[in-house]
Amino acid sequence: MNFYAIIAIYRFEMARTFRTLVQSIISPVISTVLYFIVFGAAIGSGIQTINNVQYSAFIVPGLIMLTVLMQSVANASFGIYFPKFLGTIYEHLSAPVSFLEITIGYVGAAATKSFIIGIIILATSFLFVPLNISYPMWMITLLIVNCITFSLLGFIIGILSNNFEQLNLVPMLIITPLVFLGGSFYSIEMLPSFWQTVTLFNPVMYLISVFRWAFFGVADVPIIHSFVATLVFSLICTSIIFWIFKTGYKLKS
Amino acid sequence: MSIISISKLSKAYSDGTNALDDVNLEVNKGEIIALLGPNGAGKTTLISTICGLLTHDSGEIKVDGHDTVTEYRKTRQLIGLVPQEIMLEPFETVYDTVRFTRGMFGYPESREFLEDVLQKLSLWEKRKQMIKELSGGMKRRVMIAKALSHDPKILFLDEPTAGVDVELRRDMWNLVNSLKVNGVTILLTTHYIEEAEMMADRVALLDKGKIIFVENKDALMTRMGRKELKINFKSPIKKIPSTLSKYKLALSEDRLSLVYCYDTKASRTGITRLMRDISNTGFVLQDLKTSQSSLEDIFVSLIRK
C-alpha cells in the first residue's frame, strides 16, 4: 500500500478546501441557515410536530443530509475532474499507485470536507432549535458513512464527466430531487399512499430515514432496510470505480 | 546491460491509427538515447506506454526486469517523466506541487532533498509562489523538478526544450549531463536534432510507429555522414577542367569554388591527388574549408528513403 500517495492526494485536496474556504465551507452553511429560517420558522409555524418531534427539529437531519450529500458529490467529482481538465492526471497514471489508493485519497478528502460541513451545520442548528440526539454515536457513524458513499458517487461522476456542465448535471438533476423527495422536510407518512410507494424506490429516503432515527429514535422505514440500502449503494460505487481503473475507461486510451 | 526492454510492442488508437507497430528497443543502463522522428511518428506514444499513461495492444515492456503491467509499482518507481505539455495545478505553490509528486511515488517529504532539486533548477527562491505566477520557462523547470522529486533511475524527457529560452536550454543540458554522470538513464525525444547530436549516446529513429534504426550516434554519423571539402579560388572558373573530371566535383553558382565530397572511412580520401591536380591546372587557391553533414541531414535523408 502506497500510504504516502494517499496522504499526498488527501493533503493536496484539503489544501484546496482551505484556499477556497468561503466557497467550500461558509457558503453551504449560509444556505442551510436560510433553509432553517424558511422551513423552520416560516413553514414550521404551520406544522407543530411530526412523530412527536418539533418540526423545526425534525428537519435538522434532512437539512444536514441535503448539504452533506450535495457537497460529497460536488467535492469528489471536482477533485478528480480538475486533474483531468488540467492534464495533471498524468501523474496519477504514471505513479506507482493503485485505484484503491487514488480513490481513498480523493474520496477521503471529499468525505472529510462534507463531514466538517455536516458538523458545522449541526452546531449551527443548535442555535435555532433545542436538540437532544438519541444515538449520537450512530449519528456520527451514519454521517461518515453517507459522506463516504456519496463521495464515491461523486468520484465516479468526476471521472465520467467530459466537461464542467456534465459535472454539475448529475448533482443538479438527480441528487437534489432525490434528497428533496426523500423526506428531508417531511415524513413519508404525510404523503398519499401512492407517493409513499414511489418514495420507497428513492435510495436517499433510506439514508435520511436512518439518520433521523439516530436523532429522534423514529424512522420512516425499518433501519435494517436503510443499512442494507447504504451497503449496496457503496458496493455498487466501489465496483464501478474498480472497473474504471481496471479498464482505464475515460482515463487511458 | 539494458534497463528498458521493449519487445514486439504494438498500439493502435480507437480511430485505427497504428501508433506503434511491432517496436523492439533495448535501452542500456546509464545511457542517453534520443528518439527522433517526424510529428506523429509515435515517440510520445512510446514513452506514454512505458510509463503507464497508455495501454498497449500487444507486446511486452520490461523495466529493470519487471513487467510494466503486472509489476507496475516497481517499474514506475524507477521512472521520472517530463511530458511535452506543461500540466500543473495553477493555484498550488511550487514547493507543494513538487512535494505532491514525491508523495505520489511513495516517498515521505524530505525538505533537504526537495531543496536540493529546487536549488538545482533555480526554483528555491520561488518555492512559495503559486504556479500561475510563474513564467513559461519557470513552469517548465517545475515540471522537471516534479520528475526528479523521487530520484528516478530513468528519466523521460519528452520535447523538454520546446519553446524554452536559450538560458533554460543550456541549464537543461547541464542538468541532463549531471544526471548521466550520476548513472541516470535518459530517454529523450526532441525536434532539435543538434540537441540529440550533442547529448545522446545512441539515436533511435521512429517513423509511422516503426523503429527505423537504433544506432550509436558517433557510428551513425561516421557511417552516414559525408564530409565536404570546399576549395575557394581567387578568380572564377569557366568550367571544370578535364584533368579533374575523374573527381566528383561540383562547381558553385558563383564559379568561385569547387565542392568535393569524400568518405572519411575510405582508405584513401583522394584529397592529396586532387590538390596536386588542381595545382597543375594553375588555379590560384584562396581558402579551403571542410564540413561534415549533421545528424539532421542524416535524419532527413533517412526519412526521405
Name the pair of protein chains with the most residues at their interface, and give those residue counts: A-B, 28 and 34 residues
Helix tally of chain B equals 10
Strand content of chain A: under 5%
- Classify the secondary structure makeup of chain A into a structural class: mainly alpha
Mind telling me the CATH class of the largest domain in chain B? Answer: Alpha Beta
Could you describe the 3D structure shown?
The complex is a heterodimer of chains A (253) and B (305). Chain A is mainly α. Chain A has one domain. Chain A has helices at residues 3-19, 21-43, 55-86, 89-94, 99-128, 136-160, 164-180, 193-199, 203-216, 223-247, and strands spanning 49-50, 53-54. Chain A has a two-stranded antiparallel ribbon. In chain A, strand 1 (49-50) and strand 2 form a beta hairpin. In chain A, helix 2 crosses helix 5 (99-128). Chain A is globular, with a radius of gyration of 19 Å. By secondary structure, chain B is α/β, with parallel strands linked by helices. Chain B has two domains: 2-222, 3-Layer(aba) Sandwich (Rossmann fold); 225-294, 2-Layer Sandwich (Alpha-Beta Plaits). Chain B is built from ten helices and 14 strands. Chain B has helices spanning 43-51, 72-78, 94-104, 111-120, 136-148, 166-181, 193-199, 217-224, 271-281, 295-304; strands at 2-12, 18-28, 32-36, 58-63, 66-67, 79-82, 154-158, 185-189, 202-207, 210-216, 227-233, 249-251, 257-262, 285-292. Chain B has a six-stranded mixed β-sheet, sandwiched between helices. A four-stranded antiparallel β-sheet of chain B has the order 2-1-4-5, with helices on one face. In chain B, strands 12-13-11-14 form a four-stranded antiparallel β-sheet, with no helix packed on it. In chain B, strand 7 (154-158), helix 6 (166-181) and strand 8 form a beta-alpha-beta unit. The interface between A and B is medium-sized, with 28 and 34 residues.
